[in-house]
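Write out the 3D structure for:
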Amino acid sequence: MKIGMNMLLWTDHVTETHYPIIEKLKEIGYHGIEIPLGQGDLRHYHKLGNEIAQLDLEVTAVTSIHANTNIASPDKKIRQAGLDQLRWAMDMGAALGVKTICGPFHSAFAHFSQKPPAQAERQWSAEYLHLAGGYASENGITLAVEALNRFECYLYNTMGDLKMLLDQVAHPNVGAIYDSHHAHIEEKNHEGALNTIATHLKHVHISESDRGTPGNGQVHWHSVFNTLQDMGYDGWLTIEAFSRSAPEFANAINVWRDFSPAEEIITQGFDFIKKNWINRKP
């Protein structure tokens, strides 16, 4: 098990100005960080990857697609643009040195048709994720697709939805991420949800009900940690928390206040995961 920290708490584009934060995370004891992929070029990500490697940290990445790059769109040109966007993200991820890229890239983030999911949309999503899986295989990358709550997505909200998608994708380089925040909203319980997605699970986001400090909200954490251990999960437990530090990004995800101080999130959150993983509750 490895503990990671998502840099979206501070920014949606990591640059040299954020190096002191990365160094602080290393001092606390984090095994790696998660980098958002949305802008920049190969040179930028090579340099960033080298900086992270010099600190003896590992790295994962997160990305998303939008209305004009939606692989579930009825417009084939838009679907192709989405596949191109995912290939770009994998190119940047390879330069960065990542093995896992996670995110809700099965469809456009916060884009709604005002109708329930259509079978054709899900078919297109599966088809293009399979194509993306081929490119991921060439780059030694695993794609971990994320189900979102109903207020951010309509196509895939639950682990049952996600399992159906991934069974259809049927590619070894395309799996699932479990996000405790979204599951807290959409699932009946964490045990059942995690067991549903167990055969596809590649990554985990530790995210509180209010997106603040893990352990200070309403997520049933003992169920999350106990079930993951029962499953034999040994991958990343990466904290995902948000703030108003990057206003444009915060506005896009409807974050209107700081939920917890960043220092509290990164220190108490790390200790919380470590304690709950080692001192398992019956």
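The mean pLDDT is 96.
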